[in-house]
Amino acid sequence: MLNEISEEQFKQGATIVSGILESMLSITPETLDYTLELIGISDNELKSVKILHAEKQYAHSVYFLQQAIEKSTKSFGLSLGIIKLDQLKGKDGINHKSPKVFLEMIKTTTWGAEVTKMMEQQSNKPDISKVENIINDEDKQIEIAKADKNTIELLFKVVDDLDKNLQIEKSETNNDELDMFEFSKGNCFLYLISCYSWVHFIYTRYPEEKMKPKDYTEELGIVSETPKIVSRIEKINSDLRKYVLMMKGNDEIKESD
Fold first, then answer.
1. How many angstroms separate the CA atoms of 58 and 204, rounded?
2. How many CB atoms are closer than 10 A to CB 104?
3. In this prediction, what percent of the chain has a pLDDT beyond 70?
4. Which of 15, 138, 161, 221 is buried most deeply by CB count within 10 Å?
5. DSSP letter string over the chain?
6. What is the DSSP string of 169-198?
7. Integer Cα distance of 251 and 247 in angstroms
8. Is 6 a residue whose pLDDT tops 80?
9. What would you measure as the largest C-alpha separation in the chain, in angstroms?
10. Confidence at residue 188, expressed as pLDDT on a 0 to 100 scale
C-alpha cells in the first residue's frame, strides 16, 4: 500500500519522526517533571470544561478550554525541546500566546517546517500561514474568536486527512514508529487548535472587550465543538504523558486517573 503515498510524503514523515527523536535528547529531568505537572493541570481543567459546558456556562467553559490547550501546547514544546522553561513567561515569553510555541518550532527546527508543509498541502485548510498575524493583529484575533462551527470542524478534517497518510504506512513501520506518527498527528491538531483558541483568554472574562462573555453562545464554533475538542486534547495529553514517562526511563507507562 506504500504506492498510495508520494515519495515526498514519505520523506516528510521520516523527517518529522527523526527530528522529534533528535529534539527529545536535549530535555532535562527538571523540564520533564514540570511537563508532567502541566499535563496533569490540563487534564483537570478539561474536567472543569465538561462540567461548565454541560451547565451552559459557555464563557467559563471556553476559558478553561483555552487554559487546558495552552498547557498542553507548552507541554508539547517543552517535551520536544522546542522551548525551555525560561521561555514560558516574561516580556518575550510564551505566556498566554500558545501559538508562539509553534512559531518557535517553525523557525528553529527542520521538522517543524515539514509539519507546516504537510498541513498546507491539504486541499481544504484553515489560514494558519502567518502565525505572527494570529498573535499580533487585533482584527485577526476577533475573526478567529468568532470562528463558526464549519471553521472549527475544518481543523479536525485537516488532521484526519493527514491521518489517512499515516494509516497507509502502518504496515511499513514498527510499533515505535507508529507511536511517533500518532504523536505527530496529535501535535498537528495542537498546532491548529492553539491558533484558534488562545484569543479566548482575552474575551471570556471581561465585558469591556470587543467580544464579551455574553457572546459565547451555542452558535459560536468553539462552543459548539467543545466536546470534540476536549476528547481530542484528552488523547493528546495521554500521548504526551506516555512520551514524557518514556523519556524519564519508566519501564511501565501508566495512565493517571
1. 9
2. 17
3. 70
4. 221
5. -GGGS-HHHHHHHHHHHHHHHHHHTT--HHHHHHHHHHHHHHHHHHHHHHHHHHTT-HHHHHHHHHHHHHHHHHHHHHHTTSS-GGGSSSTTS-TT-THHHHHHHHHH-HHHHHHHHHHHTSSS----S-HHHHHH-HHHHHHHHT--HHHHHHHHHHHHHHHHHHHHTGGGS-HHHHHHHHHHHHHHHHHHHHHHHTTHHHHTT-TTSSS-GGG--TTSHHHHTHHHHHHHHHHHHHHHHHHHHHHTT-SS-----
6. TGGGS-HHHHHHHHHHHHHHHHHHHHHHHT
7. 10
8. no
9. 56
10. 84
Q: Decide: 97 and 73 in contact? Cβ < 8 Å.
A: no
Cell 514508529 appears where? 177
Residue 198 CB neighbour total at 10 angstroms: 25
Q: Which cell is 199 given?
A: 484569543
Find cell 523527517 and name the residue: 15
Residue type for position 7: E
Nearest to 39 by CA among 256, 241, 242, 243: 241
Cell of residue 41, nine digits: 493541570
Measured between alpha carbons, how far is 121 from 101 in angstroms, rounded to an integer? Answer: 22
Nearest partner of 78 among 114, 119, 33, judged by Cα: 33
The span from the CA of 228 to the CA of 225, in Å, is 5
pLDDT for position 173: 43
